[in-house]
């Protein structure tokens, strides 16, 4: 699936991981639903998306905490670029 195809979906696919569902909700402008998808999930992949969401929200302290849990540094790219990088990573592993 391409980024364009993902963006054109009317709803997330049943086969999507919680991380992909979160990115889909975020793209659709529903931060609360995006956050709910990854909020209670363990693991570094969910922590990456969780960190991105808090960075987008403007909660830098919380974002830094989640980047640490993910084992990555806060990216120096734009939010849009971070979203796309996350999407491409999760599409490749799904």
The helix-strand sequence is HHHHHH
Question: How would the global form be characterised?
Answer: globular
Give a short account of the largest sheet: none
Terminal-residue CA separation: 10 Å
Count of beta strands: 0
| Class from helix and strand fractions | mainly alpha
- Total helices: the number is 6
Strand residue percentage: under 5%
The unreliable regions are: none
Please state the oligomeric state of the protein chains shown: single chain
Radius of gyration (CA) equals 12 Å
Chain-averaged pLDDT: 95
Helix percentage range: 55-70%
3D structure, described in words:
By secondary structure, this protein is mainly α. Helix content is 68%, strand content 0%. α2 runs antiparallel to α3, α4 runs antiparallel to α5 and α4 runs antiparallel to α6. The longest helix is centred in the last third of the chain and has 15 residues. The chain is globular and about 35 Å long. It starts with a helix and ends with a helix.
Question: What would you say about this model in short?
Answer:
By secondary structure, this protein is mainly α. The protein is 68% helix and 0% strand.
């Amino acid at each position: 699936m391409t980024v364009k195809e993902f963006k054109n979906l009317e709803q997330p696919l049943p086969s999507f991981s919680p991380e992909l569902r979160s990115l889909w909700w975020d793209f659709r402008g529903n931060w609360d639903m995006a956050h709910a998808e990854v909020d209670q999930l363990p693991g570094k992949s969910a922590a990456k998306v969780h960190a991105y969401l808090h960075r987008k929200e403007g909660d830098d302290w919380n974002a830094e905490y989640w980047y640490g849990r993910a084992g990555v540094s806060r990216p120096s790219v734009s939010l849009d670029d971070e979203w796309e990088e996350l999407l491409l990573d999760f599409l490749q592993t799904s």
